[in-house]
Amino acid sequence: MTRILLLGGTGDALRIARQLGSGHVYSLAGLGKVPEDLSCEVRVGGFGGSEGMTRYIESERIGLVIDATHPYAARISANAAKASGALRVPCWALRRAGWQPQAGDDWRMVGDWAELSAALAAFRRPLFTLGREPLAHLDEIPPQQFWTVRCLDAHEANPRARILAARGPFTLEGERALFDAEAFDVVVSKNSGGSATEAKLEVARERGLPVVMLRRPELPTVDREFADVAGLLEALRVLPQVARA
Questions:
Q1: At the fourth CATH level, which superfamily is domain 107-214?
Q2: What's the pLDDT band for 244 if we cut at 50, 70, 90?
Q3: Stretch 52-78: mean pLDDT
Q4: 110-139 tens-digit pLDDT
Q5: Any idea where the domains of the chain sit in the sequence?
Q6: Please, which contacts does 130-137 make with residues 24 or more away whose CB atoms are closer than 8 Å?
């Protein structure tokens, strides 16, 4: 049997994991809810860099690595490509397309936190949808700003920011209600792609709000890339000796 190591943490990865049988491993970094209804093994925690992942792949006799992590999880993607390459184990990656600006959009592209902070200087009520990263900068909030930070994990209260612990998908109606209640004047986002969190961009477009968009990181070359879950599952279907749920 070709034993699969599926690197996940996204909704797309969970869809793949639900198709895998007991001989395979679904690996999560540890953030968010751990699924309990899968046939495959669930592993939680890091590997210890590319060297640790190499040891794991070898000791567990993994025959295929699938990188279905978030598009901005560049480090784990690099580790997966390096580890699988060292052992000559095939590495596949799910690389969903990013969002594209549409008519009426005002996107301000930035490459890092310093550029992001400069782009926000003129605004007062930003909505951050970058995950946990803004939590490390709460002591840097400019005097004129009040932040709303939406991420998976709860966080202690802060007088200069509202921390929303929430998990997508987010509906258009729900996003409209949130924007009404908080009076945001700018949205801060990763270009994650997919439909689960896209509604915020539509609301920003409706209201003429700018979006400060963090550019996608460069990701390593792998043996096969897939634009969607359906294509990857079809490739698994014809792969010899893959145990399925």
A1: NAD(P)-binding Rossmann-like Domain (3.40.50.720)
A2: low
A3: 96
A4: 999 999 999 999 999 999 999 989 999 999
A5: 4-97+217-237, 107-214
A6: 130/188, 130/189, 130/190, 130/214, 131/190, 132/31, 134/188, 135/163, 137/113
CB 129 within 8 A of CB 188: yes
Residue 94's pLDDT band (cuts 50, 70, 90): very high
Q: Superfamily assignment of 4-97+217-237 in CATH?
A: NAD(P)-binding Rossmann-like Domain (3.40.50.720)
Are residues 79 and 27 in contact, defined by beta-carbon separation less than 8 angstroms?
no
Backbone angles phi, psi at 140, to 5 degrees: -105, 5
Domains 4-97+217-237 and 107-214 in one fold? yes
Which regions of the chain does DSSP assign to beta strands (E)?
Answer: 4-7, 25-28, 41-44, 64-67, 91-94, 107-110, 126-129, 147-151, 161-165, 186-190, 211-214, 224-226
